[in-house]
Design a protein that fits this description.
Layout (H helix, E strand, L loop, with lengths): L27 E5 L11 H13 L3 E7 L16 E6 L2 E6 L9 H16 L8 E6 L4 H6 L26 E6 L3 H7 L5 H15 L4 E4 L5 H6 L7 E3 L13 H8 L6 E6 L9 H13 L3 E6 L5 H7 L6 E4 L6 H8 L2 E5 L12 H8 L3 E4 L5 H9 L2 E4 L4 H12 L3 H17 L2 H17 L4
Parallel strand pairs: 1-2, 1-5, 2-4, 5-6, 6-7, 7-8, 9-10, 9-12, 10-11, 12-13, 13-14
Antiparallel strand pairs: 3-4
Helix pairs in contact: 1-15, 4-5, 7-10, 8-13, 10-11, 11-14
Length: 449
Amino acid sequence: MTLAPVRNGAARPSAATRSVGRDSEALDVCVVGMHYAPEHTGNAPYTTGMVAALHAAGHRVRVVTGYPHYPAWEVTAGYTGLRRHEILDGVPVTRVRHPVPAVPDARRRIAMDAAFTAHAALVGGPRPDVVVAVSPVLLTVLAGLRWRLPRWSSSPIGVLPSLPRLRGGRTALGVVTQDLYSRALAETRMTSSRLAGWGAKLEGALLSRADGIAVVHPQFSGPLADLGVDPARITAIPNWSHIDPPTGDRATVRRELGWRDDEVIALHAGNMGVKQGLENVVEAAREADATGAAVRFVLLGTGNQRARLEELGAGIERLEFLDPLPGDRFPDALAAADVLVVNEAATVAEMSAPSKLTSYFAAGRPVVAASWPHSAASTELARAEAGVRVDPGSSAALLDAIRATAGSGEAADAAGARGRAYAEEALGSAAAHRAYCDWVEGLAALRVS
């Protein structure tokens, strides 16, 4: 879903971000990634925040990005033309046009990613000290590798085997990995095993040529090592909570949203895509109808699977769909729920770390996660001690866990409080902003003149 803009600017770095101090220490940094502000969900808030932190630290940052379209999968009104230049919060931003498929299956998304990468690679400018590619989209690494070449090759993939990692080049390449591309192809089953295998080879070939990789969860390190990435070049920098704490009166917000006091509100907020497997939530709502359970399942947001889910859930009394909320109503809605739901498809295990958990923890409500024990989501939930986990794909188990959690009274409140404390202590923006600055400066220090 499109999260509401955070008050006072979601992407502004904390006061803890330090300035470079002397102009001679400032770096030229180019960030290449498809998603950026004004998108407010997915990896856009984190890319925008990283850029803002580097800019506040005194570095000369520029961004090459796509036209805003996620998660609605249509270009935001007003963004026209093949290329446009903007200044956002003092940072030059170049947007390049790319197709946006109405049905974003694997092949169409690969075509979109390739078109964005090709267009992004044509954007000129001075050679940066460091180029940071954000994945997804994985192919943006090719646009970063472009700066390693004395001139742009018409066939970048063909020159991959001979590209140096760093030696002999003046530009260091870092990659921020929000999702594991090849694992996504395999786990969502949106494509054939043959194409997924090709994706794994491509991901390994590209990431092995980066000088440093920042992952948003330590559990990504193992799968990346399996792809041939040197573990010594992997740095874990977790995503942070990028929404403000709730401010509204909980009872008032519930009344405004039409939620009764005598029902349990189980809220899933965020993108409605394939990897979320929200058919499980629809079926849990159907079981609540059949058993008379006082639970209302609320799916808040949008995504390419919403229309299908609405069709699947037609006639279910205890299922509600809500459009994205404006302004500061989003954190208030999270806090007004009784239970916050993470649901992952039964095939999903290693491909991602749900960014919604950072918002859930900040809201201070208990979490029920339908996720495998070894997933990043389950690991974070256990670390925060903020809720319970059930196996994905079992609607009955999900419903039972929600009822038990909501009925636990003080234990539920305590779990929510632990989640909020974890967000404040471990998921603050200040530490992540410092880590990104240190990471980029460390990459620059490795350059060979």
